[in-house]
Structure formats: C-alpha cells, structure tokens
Amino acid sequence: MRILIVEDDETLADGLVAGLRLGGFVPELTGTCADADSALRAGGFAAVVLDLMLPDGSGLDLLKRWRQAGLHIPVILLTALDSVADRIAGLDRGADDYLGKPFDLDELAARLRAIARRQEGRAEPVMRFGTLALDPARQVAFRKDQPVSLSRREYALLAALMERPGAIVARARLEDRLYGWQEGVESNALEVHVHNLRAKLGAGVIRTVRGVGYQLQGGAL
After folding, report:
1. I want to staple 4 with a disulfide (CB 3.0 to 4.6 A). Which of 45, 47, 131, 162 is the partner?
2. SS3 state of residue 3
C-alpha cells in the first residue's frame, strides 16, 4: 500500500516512515495541510495517516474539505487529543479510524491492512490467486503452499498484482507502488523485478501487456 503520512513532528514522522516501510508499505511524508492537498491531487495513495494539529491548519478541517470535495480515500487520524469527544468529532468528520498518541506502530500497520481488505472487498487476511498466497501481516509469499523468498520490492510488486487478480495493472501504478513519488525510477527497474518474480514463481505467472502494464494470469498455476 502506498500511504500518505501527514505529520509535522520530524521525529515521529521519520519513525512512521521507517516502520511502515519495514512493514511492506510505501509511505510518503508531508508536514502541512497544503502539501497534503498537493500530494493527494497527484493521486495513487491507498490511505492517509493524518495528524490533527498541523502548522498551517487543523487536520479535522482538512479532512472535512476532502470529504466535501468527494475524496473517499481512507483516513486514519493520529492525535494526542484522545478523549471520547475528540474521537467522535474525528469519525463524524469522515475519518475511517482513530489512534491516540502514543500508539503502537504494529497496531497502525494492522489497521492499515484492515482498511486495505475492506477496500478490496475481502475478509480473509491472506490474499490468494491460484496457487499463490500472500500474507501481508507476516510479509510472506507462498506458491503451492511453499514459502518463496522475495525482496521488499518483489513482494510489493506481487502484492500490487494480487490486489487486482487477472486485471492488467498499469506500469505507472506499479512504479508508484515500488518507489513512490519522491524516488527516482530507473528506466528498466520494473522489468528487472518482473524478471526476478518470474524466475521465482514461474515464467507463465506474469504476462506483459506491451505499452500498458502487467497481469497475473492462468490462475497463477
């Protein structure tokens, strides 16, 4: 999942980015309402982790504007304001979930995975397609019930394809998932990761649709 983090506390923000990256997410960081608006306009995010007290305004007001503008992206609020009234206010403004500071990073990751399941319309925590299985909580991939050793970016690529099993996933979308908007991408980087996945999973598992993107096919036999 590509996650937008809106947090102005540098120490906390750096910890969030490092921790979520280790958990298999692709986190992007902004520290103001204005930068968060710009990032969302660029698109490609699966969820937002939003602080309420920002240098240029209120996260609650920002969330309200997003919902009024028709932005349905899931939002988890992070804040030191953790009374019942604060939680109610956040949820009523359109938040999907709420965590008070201090919080456990593993819990935040679990809540983001739960949001992803709801967005994809699945209840089971393990993603499956044919003989392939992916466990986001443990960051483990399986083929025919046997574990497959994948690099972080190989895992992210496979997860992006398994979120839309059988559909053609655009090259730009896959590159966003692998690298995010703040990282440069070498021209053949995606092809290298696809090649490595085919070597580990089988040549026929991933189909190249020239000029468009890639597709899991054949029930991932």
Report:
1. 45
2. strand
* CA-to-CA separations, 80 to 14, 53, 98, 123, in angstroms, rounded: 18, 9, 11, 31
DSSP string, 182-217: TS---TTHHHHHHHHHHHHH-TTSEEEETTTEEEE-
Given a contact cutoff of 8 angstroms between Cβ atoms, the answer to whether 197 and 157 are in contact is yes
pLDDT tens across 98-107, in order? 888 888 899 9
Nearest CA to 2 out of 42, 54, 37 is that of 42
List, for residues 58-80, the tens digit of each pLDDT value. Answer: 999 999 999 999 888 999 998 88
Q: What is the pTM of this model?
A: 0.71
Q: What is the DSSP letter of 218?
A: G
CB-based contacts of 129, cutoff 8 Å, min separation 6: 162, 165, 166, 216, 219, 220
The Cα–Cα gap between 70 and 66 comes to 6
Report yes or no: 209 and 164 within 8 Å, Cβ to Cβ: no
Region for residue 130 given its phi and psi (left: phi exceeds 0; alpha: psi -120 to 50; beta: otherwise): left
Please list, residue by residue across 75-105, b when 16 or more beta carbons sit within 10 angstroms of its beta carbon and e when fewer do: bbbbbeebeeebbebbeebbbbbbbeeebee
According to the model, what pLDDT value does residue 67 have?
92
Give the list of residues 6+ apart from residue 160 with CB closer than 8 angstroms, or none: 169, 173, 174, 177, 178
pLDDT of residue 181: 53
